[in-house]
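Tutorial, part two.
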Amino acid sequence: MYREEQLRALLKGRKILIAGYGREGKSAERLIQRLVPETPYTIAVQVESGKWRDESDEWHEDWPFDMVIKSPGIPNFQFSTFNFQLTSLTDLFLQVYGDMTIGVTGTKGKSTTASLIHHLLPGSILAGNIGIPLFDILDGLKEDSIVVAELSCHQLENIHRGPHIAVLLNLFQEHLDHYENYMGYKMAKMQIGLKQRADDHFFWCADAIELDDLVRSQAMPGMLHPYRLTDATEEERMLLNACPLEGDHNRSNALVACRVAAMMGANDDLSLRLSIFQGLRHRMEKVGEYAGITWYDDSISTIPAAAIAAVKALGRVDTLILGGFDRGIDYTPLVEFLQENPVKNVVFVGTAGRRIKSQFSIFNFQFIVEDDYEKIVPWCASVTPKGGVVLLSPAAASYDAFKNFEVRGDFYREQILKLNQN
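Running the prediction step on this input gives:
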């Protein structure tokens, strides 16, 4: 294992609590068993108000630990009463391998952008929030390895070292249940650049005025690379014409992906590689044409800005499916956009959908309020004209009815496929 001793030194002699036993918690356990089998550790499946619960369902209030390896889903404030080192797999990984890592974050677009950079850099290793724990790739690391890591706010909030190349795509209201306020969320994301070193590189989208102002107000230690879609060179504009992803937001993400790849030495075949990139599932994904209608799955859309961008990208949307789990996000921008750019039909789903509906002063479209996708999809088929477009871009989380946005998108697709069977 490359740099094994450096990693072992971070864990050796500690009394460790693994907080959370999902994908990352299990990866942390494998790491400890492999590198420092003599080190005592305990698994907490839940942490709450200064207590922790083990797998036997018993709650404990004693705290014999000096290191907590926290899974991303557990908020920092659950540990506020304790004195110890709070870390994570991402923090430990970047402390040892940050100099070979390209980190990508943002409220939306990080999975696609990280995957695109990986695609443009043959031989790179993709990991992180995209579903591959960083420590599950250790055996593949060599001296010349390049790691492309998708990083969430939860993974970034406790880091001590930023990645060598950091990309911050955008910031919108999200995960407000995890932070005291919106600024807390934004500053968690900003750690990707704030914890860099002087010889590192920080890219951010300066088209977003709020993000640009925030970055420029901070003492960023690395070399700064603002990017704007409008500032693309003629050569870059020709390159972006090869991008198969729809919408200016995707072109902006492709621009920074190409700039990062070029910085890493990939110049010769960027246009060809970009042209054959396959977009990720549930992200402006064209399901196909069924019942004479084109259907799109943008289930990843959990905030208003994502739904607005999806409608703009497609140009024509006849029927839009909105709503789901309500996390208290401000839907005013979405409502204002749809008042000025009406679609013909809207489905309002879940508590978020009902709150969005309540904000409309006039209904210049046909609508239903419905939570069952087995009824939603046939209604969409009945009201959408032949040759029209149906878009699932909910602007809300899925947790009221589905395990995650992937399950929601898959169920939506299943109902569409049934249309041809009836």
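The CA atoms of residues 1 and 138 lie 6 Å apart. In part three we will examine how such features are distributed along the chain.
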